[in-house]
Amino acid sequence: MRDLAKVRSVGRAAIEQVRPLIMAGFDRRLTISYKNEMDLVTEIDLASEKGIVAIIEESFPGDGILGEEGGEVRSEAEYRWVIDPLDGTTNFAHHFPFFCISIGFEQKGVLQYGIIHDPIRRQTFEAEKGKGATLNGEPLQVSKTPKLSAALLCTGFAAARRDDPERNNMPFFDRFWKKCHGIRRTGSAALDLCYVATGALDGFWELGLSPWDTAAGSLIVREAGGTVTDRDGSPHTLKSGCIVASNGLIHPEMISTLAI
Ligand code: IPD
Ligand code: CA
Ligand code: CA
Is the CB of 187 under 6 A from ligand 1? Predict the structure, then answer.
């Protein structure tokens, strides 16, 4: 079993390494490339992932890595790091100050540690399996909102699905906004999950996410006492794509709202 204190210090060192380059990039005009018409990538996404991977490989050269920009290496390894070097790229590229770095660490497919850093607000969210979740070292607890009718929710819309009326999330958005206090769309799924963990949001759902969007955040929500499942209430895995995260109390109502 890997010493998680060492994993934590590597996660924190990786954040320290790339934070300045992300903040410097936010203040200047960037070179933007397009993976497709809607999916942007900046030079900062690429540089951030390179920096994070270098720090991890210095300490744990045999570990697997799954990064949004670099793909998967050493897929047979017992330990794997799942990295979103910049979650909220569209916000970042438009100078909208809401984005983060997200790093999850798994052993044999089970999340053990996650760290998410918001460089604008200097907020670091962390969780270790079985040991709770924290924000800048202070323990986190999900909200106690008992009913969907009193809930503040959050969601996102996968650009790749915008032309598919059945799967583009608009029908679910339409159902939810009639049932709750309000719905936010921030543009960073990883931070959305952190805000479920702080209790500012009561629930979050999204369809069509990738493993790096939810790895660290799903552990942070669970360790803050929340519930994280697939759309039908079954266990969430990084391959699920769909995620429903909540304070647990409103979870059954969220799942029934998402039923076809
Ligand atoms: C995106 C953000 C966004 C979500 C998208 C993701 P990226 O990640 O998390 O909130 O709605 O589905 O792809 O591309 O900024 O890393
Ligand atoms: Ca992402
Ligand atoms: Ca990203």
Answer: yes
